[in-house]
Specification:
The chain is built from 17 helices and no strands. The chain is mainly alpha-helical. The chain has one domain. Helix 7 runs parallel beside helix 16 and helix 9 packs antiparallel against helix 10. The longest helix is centred in the middle third of the chain and has 26 residues. The protein is globular, with a radius of gyration of 19 Å. The relative contact order is 0.18.
């Protein structure tokens, strides 16, 4: 029998959203699926308009172009100027989201694992069910906000890049990104404000974002969850379906580890801190290694017969 560890609290006295609250039934059982599926059947512009129209809308007005170019430059600066990145990591540690700051090597290879084990296969599976071309969808995302796809971990991007990412991508679980916003004093407040603007169609990037978002109900559900999260971060997480990806237990284990910021950084901190070992890991380990994952999650998988003892 697995024993869930105690939920930690952040510096504000709030319970921290973590995989310590996760039951696999939230992903596999009928109860979890019923919670997840409120997507609109009505086709959005992303589904109806031709590719050229969508690309023009994603690029946006000259004012939007200047804004996103500036944020992309900030992301590049944070990527190659380590003190700026370390300041962000120290803030996450101060809040209580991470126990210790990983090395640069661990961060880069951890981002690679997050991308190949969780982000890409989950997104590809989901968009396949929507009959959306995954490659073209990434082109639209790049045109709309190049900084939004340049950092899988999200520790180098500005506040509004995280918000735009949450607004344009129908998330499997938005918790990780909401925790990233907590490093900014007004991050969650601004997230709620901009989601409201999307619903009343006053957001300055409404046209470009709606050229990408494929679910008309998404922003309403996101706003409801953000408001609940601001009251209680340990609120039941907003999990949506990922196509057939969760049929693969290795993907599901990756989702349990990378779905929240604290669990993702525990995984990253367990990676070797040696370049040759990390390179060997990247070359030879094709599915997520349970030895880098949380014991209470791995034990749930083994009890259900999803992983070998």
């Amino acid at each position: 029998m697995y024993i869930l560890p105690q939920i930690q609290k952040d510096i504000y006295g709030r319970a921290i959203a973590d995989n310590k609250q996760i039951s696999l039934n939230d992903y596999l059982g009928s109860e979890g699926e019923g919670e997840n599926e409120n997507e609109s059947e009505e086709k959005t512009d992303r589904m109806k308009q031709n590719p050229l129209q969508l690309m023009v809308r994603a690029i946006g007005s000259p004012k939007v172009i200047v804004n996103k170019t500036g944020r992309f430059a900030t992301t590049l600066f944070n990527t190659f100027y380590y003190p700026a990145m370390r300041k962000r990591l120290m803030r996450l540690q101060e809040i209580g989201f991470i126990d210790r700051i990983p090395s640069q090597k661990q961060l880069w290879f951890g981002a690679f694992d997050m991308l190949r084990y969780f982000i890409s296969p989950g997104a590809a599976s989901y968009y396949k069910t929507k009959k959306i071309n995954f490659a073209f969808h990434q082109v639209l995302r790049f045109l709309n906000d190049p900084s939004g796809i340049s950092d899988p971990i999200g520790i180098r991007v500005p506040r509004d890049t995280i918000i735009c990412h949450l607004l344009e991508v129908v998330h499997a679980n938005p918790v990780y990104d909401l925790q990233l916003l907590d490093q900014f004093e007004d991050g969650l407040e601004e997230m709620e404000k901009q989601t409201e603007q999307m619903l009343n169609k006053t957001h300055p990037r409404y046209s470009s974002i709606t050229a990408i978002t494929e679910d008309k109900n998404y922003h309403a559900r996101l706003l409801e969850y953000v408001r609940r999260y601001r009251v209680d971060p340990a609120e039941r997480q907003m999990i949506r379906a990922s196509g057939t990806a969760r049929n693969d237990p290795h993907f599901l284990l990756a989702e349990c580890m990378f779905g929240t910021l604290p669990s993702a950084f525990r995984y990253i901190n367990r990676l070797p801190d040696n370049f040759s070992a990390l390179l060997r890991h990247a070359r030879t380990v094709k599915t997520i290694d349970p030895s880098y994952c949380d014991a209470w999650i791995v034990e749930q998988f083994r009890q259900k017969g999803l992983l070998n003892p």
